[in-house]
Design brief:
The protein has about 350 residues and is α/β, with parallel strands linked by helices. The chain is about 30% helix and about 20% strand. It folds into two domains: about 80 residues, GMP Synthetase, Chain A, domain 3 (2-Layer Sandwich); about 230 residues, Rossmann fold (3-Layer(aba) Sandwich), CATH 3.40.50.300. The strands form five sheets. An eight-stranded mixed sheet has the order 10-11-7-12-6-13-14-17, with helices on both faces. Strands 3-4-5 form a three-stranded mixed sheet, with helices on one face. The structure holds adenosine-5'-triphosphate. InterPro entries: FSCA_dom_sf, MIP18-like, Mrp/NBP35_ATP-bd, NUBPL-like, P-loop_NTPase, YlxH/NBP35.
Length: about 350
């Protein structure tokens, strides 16, 4: 039995002074990742870009010294990155950014999204948890249930919605009331717009901050969606300033969080809930993806990533909308999403 305790790790790191901010490593928000597996503890400290090599090494040594004697840890890796620290989750006052990096440029007159009844952000704190796959699966299931559904692929650095719907090429544009609007693609009754269907050779990965936000907002407003019951917005993964700014800019009516059930992913998913709370966007629920695997040989079910739950204080608790297994069928995003779609509808109506 391992005596490992995450609380003990956090408490040990709380005793390490962060010379860069005069606070401790935890309250300074330096801990950007923590994983523990079979005695191996791996933590990532996110340091500001101006950190010198010496400062980084000192912090790493201090963190290693604090953790080295903790029970249950047989191997320790303290890694440094110079990314911006994630915004702290437990801020008491609603900490809206005092300036919006991309001032709302919603154009006057005809709006492509004027007939969109509801918009819902599908978000994940981490990349690769299946957010786009789940968005596509939900969209298809909701459309099959008779709703008019659209998908806006706002995952600008890794647009995977086109391939999930078998789309390639470029979207056309059309004049509507003297404005040139994007004509969405349509597959299985779902209207789709993605940056991957708008750009040519220019790689969207080079776009930064306000440029990305601006492009996504314009895709939302400058598309001829027609009448939609629900537009799902596949958000870029993460809980940092770009995602916060985007949520603030496009102001979806609600959000759902997709996560896998590992402790660390759930810890980050909590940050995702906090991010939407900061900008007053209600979170309708969370979706557990890749929850279990059924062995094709013996038929027994395994919870590969454990039984984690998204823990939030009772007054901020959000429901789990459903669990999806790790399977080729789910990857395909064509079947298996009906129950999830119904659970979501139950929360939206
Ligand atoms: N339930 C599942 N079972 C099996 N494979 C899955 C499942 N969900 C997603 N996948 C696979 O996991 C990979 C990542 O999925 P996806 O691209 O949807 O993640 P994402 O969270 O949108 O990633 P990113 O935000 O980084 O683009 C894909 O190969 C996808 O086919």
């Amino acid at each position: 039995m391992s005596d490992y305790s995450e609380d003990a790790v956090l408490s040990a790191l709380s005793g390490v002074k962060d010379a860069l901010s005069e606070r401790d490593l935890v309250s300074a928000g330096r801990l950007s990742d923590l994983s523990f597996d079979d005695g191996r503890l791996r933590i990532i400290l996110g340091l500001p870009p101006e950190t010198t090599q010496d400062q980084g090494l000192q912090l790493r040594n201090a963190a290693e010294a604090a953790l080295t004697d903790l029970p249950g840890i047989t191997q320790l890796a303290v890694l440094l990155t110079t990314h911006k620290a994630a915004p702290a989750l437990k801020t008491t006052a609603p900490k809206r950014p005092d300036r919006n990096p991309h001032p709302n440029k919603r154009p006057e007159g005809y709006q492509g999204d004027a007939q969109v009844a509801k918009t819902l952000a599908v978000s994940s704190a981490k990349g690769g948890v299946g957010k786009s796959t789940v968005t596509a699966g939900l969209a298809r299931a909701l459309a099959a249930a008779g709703l008019r559904i659209g998908v806006l692929d706002a995952d600008i650095h890794g647009p995977s919605i086109p391939s999930l719907f078998g789309l390639s090429g470029r979207l056309d544009s059309r004049m509507v009331q003297n404005r040139r609007l994007i004509g969405p693609a349509e597959v299985d009754g779902v209207k789709i717009v993605s940056i991957g269907l708008l750009t040519g050779s220019e790689d969207p990965v080079v776009w930064r901050g306000p440029m990305v936000q601006g492009a996504i907002a314009r895709m939302l407003w400058d598309t001829d969606w027609g009448a939609l019951d629900l537009l799902l917005i596949d958000m870029p993964p993460g809980t940092g300033d770009p995602q916060l700014g985007l949520a603030q800019d496009i102001q979806p009516d609600g959000a759902v969080i997709v996560t896998t059930p590992q402790d660390l992913a759930l810890m980050d998913a909590r940050k995702g809930v906090g991010m939407f709370e900061k900008v007053d966007i209600p979170v309708s629920g969370w979706i557990e993806n890749m929850a279990s695997f059924t062995c094709p040989d013996c038929g027994s079910e395994h919870r590969l990533f454990g039984e984690g739950v998204l823990e939030l204080p009772a007054e901020r608790a959000i429901p789990k909308l459903g669990s999806l297994p790790l399977s080729l069928e789910m990857r395909d995003a064509r079947t298996g999403y009906d129950a999830l779609a119904q659970a979501l509808l139950g929360r939206l109506s």
